[in-house]
Structure formats: C-alpha cells, structure tokens
Amino acid sequence: MKRLFFAAVVSLALFSCSAPKYTFILKGEISGADEGEQITLLYPILKDGVWYEKELVTTVVEGEFLFEGELREMTFAHLVFDNMDEVLLFIEPRRMTINLERYRAYDFSLQGVEVESEFEAFRRWMGEIPRGLYEESRKVVEANEKWIEATQRGDLAADSLMRVFYDAVSDFHKVRDAELERCRGFLEEHLYYAIAPYWLYYLTFCEVLSVEEAMAIYDQLPSQGRDSGLGLLAKQRIELLASDAGGYEGEWASDFERVAADGNRVRMSDYLSQDGYLLLDFWASWCVPCIEQMPNVRRLCEEYSERGLHIIGVSSDDDATAWRRAIEKYGLTEYPQVMREEDTEERLFFDEMADVCERYEVEAIPCFILIDGKGEIVARWQHFDEGIFEMFDSLL
Fold it and tell me: What are phi and psi of 31, to 5 degrees?
C-alpha cells in the first residue's frame, strides 16, 4: 500500500508540474483493463541523422497509467496492449491526457496536443472504418486460435476452421483496403495539415503509393511539413522504396550509416564520387578465407585509392572486441571499418537499415561488392584473381 501511495504521489507531482522542454507526459485513464496489464508506447526518434524506435513500457494501476519521455517535436506513436491491440495517436513535448476503454481503444479521446483538431478531423473522415478494422482483426485472431487448438487436438473440424480463418482474413483485408483508400483521400485533401506527412509515410509504407506518386505529394507539402520530423521520416521511407536495392550487378546499392571503429559516423553514399568507385569488403575476424584475402584488399587500397577507389569494411562479428583486435592485427585502418549491425541498445526504426548483409544479400563471406559513382553495383566476387586487378586497371 505504501508503494502504491508513493507511486500515486509521484504521478500527481509529475503531472501537476510543467513538463520541461523536450519532455512529454502522457497520463491515461482506462476502463476494462486488468490490474497490472502492460501497455507499450512506440514512437520514432531521430538521432544524428538516424531513425530509432523508442519503446516505453508501463502498467495499469487502478485504471490509470503514465508515460514520460523525451521528444523534440510532434510525432506519431502507437499504444500497444498485451494482446497486440494498438492505437495510433500523435504526441508532442507537453502534458497530455488520454481516456479510453480497453476493448474499444479506437474510440479514445486525447487532450493537450496542438494537432488535436486535425486528428479529430481525420477520425470524422474515417467514420466507422476504425471500428470495423478492430472487429475484423478480433475475428481473425479468434478464428486462428480455434484452428490451432483443433489442429493440436487432432480434431477433424480443423479443416473447416482453417477455411473460417482464411475467410476472416479476407474480410479484414477488404476493410483494410477501404481504410487505405480513405487515408489517401484525406491526405490529398489536407496537405497543409501538420499530420499530413505521417499519412504520406504510412501510405508509402503500405505501398499504396508508387515512388512517383509519393514524391509528387511530398513536393506539394508546405515547407514546414517537408522540414518537420514527420516530413523527414516520410522522405526516408520514399527513398527506401525508390532504391530498389539489392546485392548483385545491375541493382542499386542500399545506403547505410554506421559508427566506425574509429568512432566516426560513416554513411555509405558519402563515399560515392562521380569518377570513382566504392568497394564493400564483407569479412569477419573468425573467417579464415577473409583473412587470406586481406593482402589483396590492402593491395587495392595502395594502388587505387589515389585513383578514385574508396573502401568500407563490413564485419559480421558479434564480438566488438574481437573485431577491433583484428583491425589492429591485420592493419585494416587505412579505410573505414563498420559492423553489419549497429552496436546499440536502441532498435533502428527502419528494419531495412538494421543489417547491411541482409540488404546486400550476403550469405557467405568473404564477399566483395563494387559500386560505381551513381550507386549501381557493377561487380561482385568472393575470391581475388589477377582478372580482378585487371578490371580495376581498366576502370581506374
């Protein structure tokens, strides 16, 4: 009881004081939720040019919950419940309150945000679609659970329950298609809204808009929309869709950004030059064939770096200490060295940016990928021979 009383006093003190700059406080009142149920708040944040997904977790205590975090400007967020129900809302660096019913969460009310009237206009535009989406998603989950239970029991009804599940999925997608079409109409009619860039991001993420359509809409946004955090997020999503990236000749190289072994931040596209080439060297400290190829990489660096060749090493090491030790041992300090995945506690917002090897379809190392100044992959190989050096002679 003392702990609950102390928590309530702290909660009241937090909410009654003004929120410091770049801090938000979201106080919730919820009916129908179990005591102690967890609620997660997910939202994107931009740090040093990289998008991360921030995750905050709280619990329901006597019908209330509280989130507090850092935020520089308005963005979108999702409230996610234990059974994966979720609510979209917009949050700002200020004090906010939200009221909702646990199993009618789509019908919440949010106060304290400057874009409240814009979001209310959006919800009126959508009408009954959010309720329909929730109901159809519940049917999908329930049908799936019944099908799995029957299958585990060896029940002969499993086949018919499977058909019920697929029918429920089909019905859900019909409502989802209607939602996406309605969202598109709202975006086109409300380009001047502060929340408009979010719908551009969302429709691009769902691939409702082509790259050309998305860029045309982005260009129509007012400058404050394009320059906002949501505008930058939408632009990043469009660029990822436009890259059509892969890992083989003729495909466009995927951009990535990492903190290198020397502590400097490295962005792949910064190493592309009109008359030069970029070589990605995929290796690992534990990979004997990779170590055997290192003299050839150093030879390339010595002979062609002044003629327009840049090199970035991409390690598949899980152990950063072993990675750094190998860099020193084998003298791999003449060009940037990064790891395939960012060594950070925070999750990257764009999954496509999380693993460089996956983006370049590298399943075996060593692997070498050569990229021209336009960002197109022109060669890929695993082992050096004199033909590789002859290729560089002709290119550079």
Answer: -110, 150
**276 pLDDT exceeds 70?**
yes
SS3 label, residue 368: strand
Which tokens is 209 given?
Answer: 């808009």
Task: List, in sequence order, every beta strand (DSSP E) within 284-346.
Answer: 309-315, 337-339
> What is the length of the chain?
396
Among 13-22, 70-79, 210-219, 326-335, where is mean pLDDT lowest? 13-22
How far, in Å, CA of 176 to CA of 137, rounded? 10
pTM for the whole structure: 0.70
Q: Any bridge partners for residue 38, and if so which?
A: 59
List residues bridging with 315 in a β-sheet: 283, 339
- Among candidate residues 157, 170, 162, 132, the one with its CA nearest the CA of residue 144: 162
How far is Cα 348 from Cα 97, in angstroms, rounded to an integer? 28
What residue type is 6 in one-letter code? F
Number of H helices, E strands in the chain: 12, 16
56 φ/ψ angles, rounded to the nearest 5 degrees:
-120, 140
- Is residue 119 a contact partner of residue 199, using CB atoms and an 8 Å limit? no
Other CB atoms within a 10 A radius of the CB of residue 63 amount to 13
Give tens-digit pLDDT for 52-98: 889 999 999 999 999 999 999 999 999 999 877 889 999 999 999 99
- Pairwise CA distance, residues 113 & 95, whole Å: 8
Tens-digit pLDDT profile for residues 241-251: 876 566 788 88
Rounded to whole angstroms, the Cα distance separating 255 from 239 reads 10
Give tens-digit pLDDT for 353-395.
Answer: 678 888 888 888 999 999 999 889 999 999 888 888 889 888 8
Nearest-10 crossing angle of helices 196-205, 158-189: 140
Task: Kindly tell me the burial class for residue 150, based on how many C-beta atoms sit within 10 Å of its own C-beta (0-12, 13-18, 19 or more).
Answer: middle
Task: Please name which of 72, 75, 68 lies closest in space to residue 96, comparing C-alpha atoms.
Answer: 68
Residue 103: partners with Cβ closer than 8 Å, 6 or more residues away: 32, 85
